[in-house]
């Protein structure tokens, strides 16, 4: 079994210019840094994806996202984005499924979405991914706005082909740590005061009769 990965293990990497380009792969015996493309295949292991821009953090334990497939369970999820093509390529080297968002104008952004199902493949209930700050204190996931920055712990494993899907590698969201918290504040739309015209049935009938002459 893989060991649990404490986030402070990655502190020694923070002096690197782009520390999020290095992952820590845990095995039964040791933790080793993988930078060679041929080695970036941490199947069945945890890794930290650092310094990513977070969008649509949906990790409320009480409100998982509803699956659009009736045969699949609901899930919690987080989306990450970048406009840096080099970073996009590095994500792909980590067996992360990356999609391009091409606007009518401006630069292309790239996104990847990580999920954790509420029920695993063995039919067991799972726990919602924990969301913490830099001090490892819990954060209300509903307060996380788009553009927040943080680190993700992912668990990667291979899955077989079936149900119309090819075999591949899944990246399961395990934990979120925010290093920059853009607070989301919900602003409900309010109506401005205005007048309301009231038309009685009698007045409406008279208007319709006047139209006959």
How do the strands and helices of this protein lay out in sequence?
Layout: E1 23-26, E2 31-34, E3 45-58, E4 75-82, H1 85-93, E5 99-101, E6 109-117, E7 130-132, E8 148-159, E9 168-180, H2 201-210
Parallel strand pairs: 7-9
Antiparallel strand pairs: 1-2, 3-4, 3-8, 4-6, 5-6, 8-9
What does this structure look like?
With 213 residues, the protein is mainly beta. It has one domain: Beta Barrel (OB fold (Dihydrolipoamide Acetyltransferase, E2P)). Helix content is 9%, strand content 33%. The protein is built from 2 helices and 9 strands; from the N terminus they run E-E-E-E-H-E-E-E-E-E-H. The chain has helices at 85-93, 201-210; strands at 23-26, 31-34, 45-58, 75-82, 99-101, 109-117, 130-132, 148-159, 168-180. It has a 7-stranded mixed β-sheet with strand order 5-6-4-3-8-9-7, covered by helices on one side. Strands 1-2 form a two-stranded antiparallel sheet.
List the defining traits of the structure above.
seven-stranded mixed sheet; 213 residues; two-stranded antiparallel sheet; OB fold (Dihydrolipoamide Acetyltransferase, E2P)
């Amino acid at each position: 079994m893989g060991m649990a990965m404490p986030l402070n293990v990655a502190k020694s990497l923070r002096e690197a210019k782009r520390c999020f380009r290095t992952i820590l792969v845990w095995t039964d015996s040791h933790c080793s840094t993988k930078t060679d493309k041929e080695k970036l295949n941490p199947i069945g292991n945890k890794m930290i994806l650092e310094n990513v821009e977070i969008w649509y953090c949906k990790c409320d334990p009480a409100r998982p996202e509803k699956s659009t497939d009736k045969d699949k369970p609901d899930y919690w999820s987080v989306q990450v984005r970048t406009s840096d093509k080099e970073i996009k390529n590095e994500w792909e080297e980590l067996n992360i499924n990356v999609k391009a968002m091409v606007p009518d104008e401006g630069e292309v952004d790239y996104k990847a979405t990580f999920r954790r199902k509420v029920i695993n493949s063995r039919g067991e209930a799972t726990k919602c991914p924990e969301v913490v700050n830099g001090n490892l204190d819990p954060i209300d996931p509903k307060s996380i706005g788009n553009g927040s920055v943080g680190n993700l712990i992912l668990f990667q494993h291979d899955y077989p082909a079936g149900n119309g899907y090819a075999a591949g590698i899944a990246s399961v969201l395990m934990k979120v740590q925010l290093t920059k918290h853009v607070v989301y504040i919900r602003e409900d739309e309010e109506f401005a005061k205005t007048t309301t015209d009231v038309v009685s049935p009698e007045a409406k009938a008279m208007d319709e009769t006047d139209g006959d002459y």
